[in-house]
Amino acid sequence: MLTEEQLLSKCFHLICAPVRCMQLVEGISKGRSMLRSAKDLAPPLFVWEPVPDSCCLEEYDHFLEALKVVDVISPNHHELAALFGQIDQLNKSDQADMKLLQGHCDRLMADGFPKQRGSVVVRRGEQGCCVLSRSRRTYFPAYHLPNNSAAQNSLTVTEPKVVDPTGGGNTFLGGFCIGLLDGRHKERVSYEQGALWGSVAASFAIEQVGMPKLSFRQDGTELWNGESVEDRIKVMEERGSLSIKMHKPEAE
């Protein structure tokens, strides 16, 4: 049972199977409808992270139903391929993987999300993430770049220090939710800004086993593992020119 304060959240990160996702969205929406304090508020954003076991062809119809009530779906690349029964088609080459994943995202956008709404955010581990909507498609490298990445030529490359990737995906989406609502942008929602924040959040989570170390500068700025979130955001923003803007889908 959510408290009133929780029900008034601007964004919800749901980690579950599609049927459970629909139940949670319905429950949250019903709870908010009963609160006077929520009457004049914009609807919350729902970011859905499907559990791995649900990503299979047998669940596809349920996925399409769930997409009608969420704003973002974010599987990792293996989960997305498994949803279409094509997990064995991955890891042939980066270009081939991107083409395969892009096709799957196109289908989810066309079959599931209502028109003019929604985004598919595909998490690809050390290869970064893909942010796909109806109007724009963008690739972002990970903060900690793999040694074979073309982005290693960037002046903003940092020394990789990945220790344990456990929890990186969950942390990415926590940061993604914060970035979606970043008040510095005129638009209410910026999927690209969400991806930047998510990449930075994940970068701290995978640098050790367990939680990153929290400390503070003299001015009160939070430091995680000795670095600030804002400093890493700047690094990611400087890498923006390395993002690959993919072709827009054809008009429907």
3D architecture notes:
The chain is of the alpha/beta class. 36% of the residues lie in helices and 13% in strands. The chain has helices at 4-7, 18-33, 60-67, 77-83, 94-111, 168-180, 191-205, 229-238; strands spanning 11-16, 45-50, 72-73, 119-123, 129-132, 137-140, 214-216, 222-224. The strands form two sheets. Strands 1-2-3-4-5-6 form a six-stranded mixed β-sheet, sandwiched between helices. A two-stranded antiparallel sheet has the order 7-8. Helix 2 packs parallel to helix 3 (60-67), helix 6 (168-180) runs antiparallel to helix 7 and helix 7 packs across helix 8 (229-238). The chain starts with a helix and ends in a 14-residue tail after the last helix. Mean pLDDT is 87; it is low at 241-252.
Mean pLDDT: 87
Helix content percent band = 25-40%
Please state the oligomeric state of the protein chains shown: single chain
Portion in strands = 5-15%
Largest sheet: 6 strands, mixed
Defining traits:
alpha/beta, six-stranded mixed beta sheet, 13% strand, 252 residues, 8 strands, 8 helices, two-stranded antiparallel sheet
What is the topological layout?
Blueprint: H1 4-7, E1 11-16, H2 18-33, E2 45-50, H3 60-67, E3 72-73, H4 77-83, H5 94-111, E4 119-123, E5 129-132, E6 137-140, H6 168-180, H7 191-205, E7 214-216, E8 222-224, H8 229-238
Parallel strand pairs: 1-2, 2-3, 3-4
Antiparallel strand pairs: 4-5, 5-6, 7-8
Helix pairs in contact: 2-3, 6-7, 7-8
